[in-house]
Amino acid sequence: MAMASGATILLADDDVTVREALRGLLEDEGYQLTVVEDGAQAIAALDQHEFDLVISDLQMPNVDGLGLLRAVRQQSPQSIFVLMTAHATVESAIAALHEGASEYLLKPVIFDDVLHKLDTLLTNRQLSWERQFLRRQLDCRWDYEKLIGTSAVMREVAELIQRVAPTPSSVLISGESGTGKEVVARNIHALSEYRDRIFLPVNCGAIAETLLESQLFGHLRGAFTGAVATQEGLFQQARGGTLFLDEIGDLPFGLQVKLLRAIETKEVIPVGASKPVRVDFRLIAATNRDLKKDVEERRFREDLYYRLHVVAIDLPPLRERREDIPALIEHLVQVCNRDLKRNVKGVDATTVRLLSGLPWKGNVRELRNVIEHAMILGDGDWITVANLPRELRGAETSLYPDDLRQAMHLAERQHIDRVLARHSNDKRAAAQSLGISLSSLYRKLEEVPESDTSTVLS
To answer: Residue 127 and residue 85: Cα distance in Å, rounded?
Structure first.
């Protein structure tokens, strides 16, 4: 993280004694320092590099401290500005704070005081930035915050997550669209040492190629038309957190070289810059493509592929883990209850069986859309087949076998399931509603067990 150690500082002062004293002090503390003699040189440095903090004398030739402050606010608004002067007046202090300075130091400076104030300013800046980002993440109302499923393949995925999360290694998650690749990435982040820092997702296929480089690596003011201010890229914004690059297979070939360099050196060069910027991040990538085939066909760099493929997690499509669908349905009902401000109790057994047998080409994302659709259109406590999208209702007929007696037993069992659902599984109340004795109800439930009806669609 760009807090005390490793933060980049621009120091501008025309007094050589002060410059060299502060240079020695700050470099010994691990700061990365750029030192200039006046405001004009400082402005030129801002055009070439991004700084976490700027320290400036008030009175300097060419451009004074207040002039430099105004330039920083325009060119690098995220930078902290600290003004120093040996000519302290109330007016200059008020002017500096009004213009956006974060701190005002008097010369001769006291070294311990300088170090304490700089550390406080940088720490507060980082915490403020993280609060803003976390607030933005909460606004996204992420629905799939946990892995759902107890199938063998999902248990294997969960074990891989547990093993790789504590490491800093790169992870490549593969799977069809909608299988939950970002869910896996967020779980890795949540179980890692990076969990108290930022999780930054970006879809490489959703951003125009002309903007993606700037989005990832940042740019300097004036680097291209419309670049009115210097902007940090996502690699810089990660600040020790997790960067999740979704649809990495769509990354343009030219940017793959830059990404490889960022992974290997932990440095990026913003668009329009000549000096590299140190970055700190944990990388997780995801794809719905066969990257190995893309490597063979020279659409994806082989060296980058192996850099990303340190640990591979393959997510199965939903149709290959049908036993997880009932649990997913229950979870998604809870999610939609929250989002839609409803209080639906669940999905009746007939509908669960129907949904468990569908092909789900859109995987969990498609299932979520179906549940949300049913909850919007339905007005009862339970979701039934009648609440499903029209194109799915016809699939109900596939629940019935050709054998007439078996079909009648199955239809009877489905009706009993619906009545049980209406009575919250209270068998005595359901039997009374059905007009049969409790013992008859138990007998009918045994005739067509739930395990038998659940396999009809397979």
So the answer is: 28
